[in-house]
Amino acid sequence: MASKFRNLIASNLSNIVRDIQGEELNTGARYLAGNLLLDNRSFPRIGFQLNRKIIPRFTPQMVEDVKSSLKDCSEISEVTCHDSGLRFDVRKESFVKEVLHTTSNRPKGYKWNRNAMFDPDSKHVIVEFSSPNIAKPFHIGHFRSTIIGSFVANIHEAVGHRVTRLNWLGDWGTQFGYLLAGMDQFNVTIDHLKEDTLHKLLQIYIDANRLGEADPNFAKKAREKFQQLEEGSDPQLLEYWKFFREFSIKELKKVYARLDIEFDEYSGESFYSKDKADHVLEMLKEQHLLKRKDGCEVVELPNTTDVKIIKSDGSSLYITRDLAAAIHRFEQYEFDRMVYVVDNDQTHHLRNLFTILEKMGLSWANQCFHARFGKIKGLSTRKGNMVLLDHIIDEAKARMIDEQGKTNTTRVFGEEAEKAAQILGVSALIVADFKQRRVKDYKFSWDTALSPKGDTGVKLQYLHARLNSLLMNSGVELDTGANTLPLTEPSALQLVFHLGQWDECLKQSYTELDPSIIVRYLFKLCNFTNKCFKELTVKGEDPDLARARILLFYSSKQVLAEALTLIGVQPLDKM
Fold this sequence. Notes:
alpha/beta, five-stranded parallel β-sheet, four-stranded antiparallel β-sheet, 20 helices, 14 strands
């Protein structure tokens, strides 16, 4: 990347600013380096811009001192002052060499907190995501939480943090009362559930809900079943519930494997049902935060909202268990940050959760964040209205196999082709999702998502495979220390400049926890690289020029692979 120039400029600048303005401002070299951004407004001139807001009291003397301090630096060609701030022009030859050499030599697993764009401290981050319900098939409604949460975990890890991936299962609540009451009502035993388990449980739940709406006595029975489960007064109910949970996790892991996602912990509401919920109640009572209203226990919030903590029948609520979980997680992990990847509908609930934690005087409450997201509209399969994630992945895979059969450029066959189709299908689904801003709803289109043209996951995978083919078949050996002076064409400089912005893209995506920033960067990378394919030949060229161009293409492939892996896509070497 371009860290060398940032650090060089910042080192000189920090000494001058400190001498003139004193220590009251943050003028450390790392801070200044992290705020020096590549300025693309004057491309093909290459330069870094430092916003005037970073150093509010610019003086003419300061500018002259900065120029003087860098006059003997062969890599900085000019320093200018504008209304918006300071600009430092870098010599193109130095910039191209630095970007391509550092990019091509960056080790796998590089931690970005070594870069001044990021905080150097390594922290412990918990990411709670996916959170499907047990005893039900994995519905597409949990797809966005799953892939966005995986991205949030990946990017924290890439920066250099220790990450715990946590799946908060919907494994408790009144719905299990209905399920257990339905098993009684319809004479269902565990033996009846040995095959097609989740679909049968779903049907029992649907039928029990309908019965509850029509028959108040059955609804009462369902509530009593859950109360007995929560109190642990009926061992058989607990045995049934354990069967639901263990079988569900086993099936969920199969779906996650198709997305190449793993969790460090499968937690759930059930763990925080009675004892830990009672502990929360005691804490709230000790701090005089719990009030009794209409037979329920509530917490009054500053916005005059009453948040119900315990129902009139004494059973806990979702927020009770969320409070218990947050407190227990801090006691267990002593996390520095906890991110809840949950949809927009839960914004009010999580705001209440965080506010109650703050009212309880817990110092870490402000380290809890909600990475909210919108809904997918229009996503269905040829199998019908019940939209299950397995069916969506199957559909994407089948459509990619169809496309493989229609093209004569396919380079994979048999089992390899089937595996590639699966990866391509998942890539298409993830990139179609991540094209959108995280917080926005969007309408899904199969034709758009799976097209090799336009801004799609298939297009990005095709570029990676094409770059790999060039590197394998060019006849030119890769030299990561190659002479880069022959790279003078505008298309080559444009690609190098874009590669130099990769750490800035990462920083913005990390700060906003939004993968769409990376995906938009990748589509530009794709366009710039394809332009180079058209204009910069390798075979038959002068050896120095060929080696320089191969290094350029290799660096593009490296950044593309890094970015795809971050968003949860496995790069394909051929397709």
